[in-house]
Amino acid sequence: MKRFHVHVGVTDIDKSIAFYSSLFDAEPAVVKPDYAKWLLDDPRINFAISMREDAAKGIEHLGMQVADRAELAEVYDRLTAADRPVLEEGATTCCYARSEKSWIADPDGVVWEAFLTEGDSTTYGGSPDLDRLVSANAASGACCSPQVAPAKSSCC
């Protein structure tokens, strides 16, 4: 079963954990010094926050987390059908987890990821370089959020 994903950059991890724990009436499933994640069933969401010095604050990216490889293939087919550049990152470490993922940006530059979490990691991980994707809204240097190039106008 798929789970909607939202990742938000924050300035104070402790205050943000307290706020979102109150808002969701639940404690995070994962807490690290610079990261926290709630896996909620109502609403069904993977909501993550991180405190990164070089990342913008607010929504960094959106995504769709899947439960197995069949769902990942289904969502990947949807990405490719969207007729936008797709970056197949493949196996990666991101947000203290080992994942298989791909990235896409919508026509207005909102960055989305499709991913299958395959296990925990002791490291935060890095960010892919998605210079093929265009996004004015993406957070530069954010956790798992792609580094994207500004739009290049080739016509009027």
From TrEMBL:
Enumerate the InterPro entries for this protein: ArsI/CadI-like, Cadmium-induced_rsp, Glyas_Bleomycin-R_OHBP_Dase, Glyas_Fos-R_dOase_dom, VOC_core
| PROSITE patterns named in the record | VOC (PS51819)
Q: Which residues form the VOC domain?
A: 2-117
Q: Which Gene3D superfamilies match?
A: 2,3-Dihydroxybiphenyl 1,2-Dioxygenase, domain 1 (3.10.180.10)
Signal peptide positions on this chain: none
Gene Ontology process terms (BP): response to cadmium ion
State the superkingdom: Bacteria
| Transmembrane domains' residue ranges | none
NCBIfam families for the chain: ArsI_CadI_VOC (NF041414)
Record-given protein name = Glyoxalase
This protein's species is Novosphingobium endophyticum
Organism classification, top ranks? Answer: Bacteria, Pseudomonadati, Pseudomonadota, Alphaproteobacteria, Sphingomonadales
